[in-house]
Design goal:
alpha/beta, seven-stranded mixed beta sheet, six-stranded mixed beta sheet, 22 strands, globular, binds nicotinamide-adenine-dinucleotide
């Protein structure tokens, strides 16, 4: 494929390309241009040029257009999901659900376009009033990771387009294909050419140009906390607005009164969906002592049923991890934990067999007796391995849960609503799910405490980050005297 700029497929000025690899087979799926700073500058100039007209479109027109685009994306789900599975590795059923999530998010914000009320604020002095109104931020640089290339693009595009901004998108280097196809589908469905541009290439080149380019007003970033720190530093040079959705190490707390079967299902879904590569995957499991052995026995039985394989096989429950680098990381974290005395209950290695030879597979893994200073606890384990801890009570669970640099998601499993509310109050995380694994919804804000991020995506709150607030002070004739400069 090529890059998508100004509604057209273009090569990079470098003429260089990069191969996109299927994580299940190691085979080349396609190639994309290896863009450089010049390519980004061209795309940014196009996006800047289209801003005036796009932001001037009436909210109702923009709303109708976005609803229409979401309908067209829905009719393309199957093709987009196939591409997503082939470049990312996730099973087809998860890929379909991700594309449908994109559609749902776009529809949600299509419905909010023009629904914002602005304020008229009278001056307490009686001299007049202010109008507090909203303006689009401008050209947004959207930097997207490889774990959810479609939905995390949707979390940025949907509110951003609804608010009247234009975009230059940089997909992750290893998952650009579905984003490129989406840009074409959306443009064919009526999005004006140049409102959404996609430039492919390395973060260190294409990403850095987005961070430095003075015509970009905002960076919407999802990725690792380490990259987020770099983004924040570079964006500071031209005071760009930033939203940072970063890493997590989410605790799941199962109390003694929880529905154990439900919680086991939740833990399996919460840890192994997308092969454990979700910012809000369950990454540390805390079980009350009295239910721990029952829970662990059932959990191991559940994990045995997780069928690992190529995402295109309809029987596959869990696909490969995304890359060899990622597989090694998970392997090393497991080995470091066992070196410190952890016990592997199930998994702990790559599966054997010819179907797994060329892909980046790793077995779903459960660990107990894990030293709390192991990497798998202290860092973000972005893969299918889960440390399990036994705790005395809720206080100990909360204390452990909060002992992390991260604060993204968390879950509490109990039938006692008072207990759940207390835990939610005390856990330092942007979201706490009660009796549910992590599921994001477009209508509620999402984001992190601590080093898990800055700002919020989704919900009405997410829309706010795509606006500047404009104040117009109006002095009624003959009343605005207070500022007059003294004459001698
Ligand atoms: P990453 O930080 O390696 O890359 C993310 C994006 O940043 C990619 O497009 C990459 O090319 C780009 N990039 C890299 N270096 C850059 C630079 N110097 N300048 C500009 N752009 C640069 O992250 P990843 O490995 O693709 O994604 C996994 C991470 O994302 C995990 O830590 C996960 O927790 C996090 N994540 C967070 C959320 C959330 O909403 N909080 C959601 C999903 C994933």
């Amino acid at each position: 494929m090529k890059m998508f700029v100004d509604g057209k497929w273009v090569d990079s000025v470098t003429g260089n390309t990069s191969s996109i690899i299927n994580p299940a087979t190691g085979e080349v799926v396609d190639s994309v241009p290896r863009g450089n700073r010049e390519d980004v500058k061209v795309a940014v100039d196009v996006a800047k040029d289209r801003l005036k007209k796009w932001s001037a479109m009436s909210p109702i027109e923009r709303s109708r257009l976005l609803y229409g685009i979401s309908d067209v994306v829905r009719t393309n789900v199957e093709g987009l999901a196939q591409t997503l599975t082939m470049e990312q590795g996730k099973p087809l059923y998860e890929a379909r659900s991700e594309v449908m999530g994109f559609v749902g998010c776009l529809e949600y914000y299509a419905g909010l376009t023009g629904r914002f009320r602005s304020a008229q604020v009278p001056f307490t002095s009686g001299e007049g009033y202010s109008l507090v109104t909203k303006k689009p931020v401008g050209v947004v640089g959207a930097i997207v990771p490889w774990n959810f290339p479609v939905s995390l693009l949707g979390w940025k595009l949907s509110p951003g387009l609804a608010a009247g901004n234009t975009f230059v998108v940089k997909p992750a280097s290893t998952t650009p294909l579905t984003d490129l196809k989406l840009a074409e589908v959306m443009t064919n469905a009526g999005l004006p050419a140049g409102v959404l541009n996609v430039v492919t290439g390395p973060g260190s080149v294409v990403g850095e140009e987005l961070l430095e380019n003075p015509k970009i007003s905002k960076i919407a970033f999802t990725g690792e906390t380490g990259t987020g720190k770099r983004i924040m530093g570079q964006a500071a040079l031209t005071i760009k607005r930033v939203t940072l959705e970063l890493g997590g190490s989410d605790p799941m707390i199962v109390c003694d009164d929880a529905d154990i079967d439900l919680a086991v299902e939740g833990a399996a879904f919460g840890r192994f969906r997308n092969a454990g590569q979700i910012c809000t995957s369950v990454k540390r499991l805390f079980l009350f002592q009295s239910i721990a052995s029952d829970f662990i026995r059932k959990f191991v039985e559940k994990v045995k049923l997780i069928r690992v394989g190529n995402g295109l096989d309809p029987h596959t429950v869990m696909g490969p991890v995304h890359s060899e680098h990622q597989r090694k990381e998970v392997q090393q974290m497991v080995e470091e934990a066992t070196g410190r005395g952890a016990h592997v209950l199930i998994g702990g290695r790559s599966p054997s067999g010819t179907e797994f030879d060329k892909g980046y597979f790793f077995e779903p893994t459960l660990l107990t007796e894990v030293d709390y200073d192991s990497r798998i606890v202290r860092e973000e384990c972005f893969g299918p391995a889960l440390p399990i801890f036994i705790v005395r009570d809720l206080e100990e669970a909360i204390e452990r849960a909060n002992d992390s640099i991260y604060g993204l998601g968390s879950s509490v499993w109990t039938k006692n609503l008072e207990r759940a509310q207390y835990a939610s109050e005390m856990i330092e995380a942007g979201t706490t799910w009660i009796n549910s694994p992590p599921i994001s919804r477009p209508e509620v804000p999402f984001g992190g405490f601590k080093q898990s991020g800055i700002g919020r995506e989704l919900g009405v709150e997410g829309l706010e980050y795509y606006y500047e607030t404009k104040t117009t002070q109006v002095y009624e004739y003959g009343k605005g005297k207070k500022w007059r400069y003294p004459e001698n």
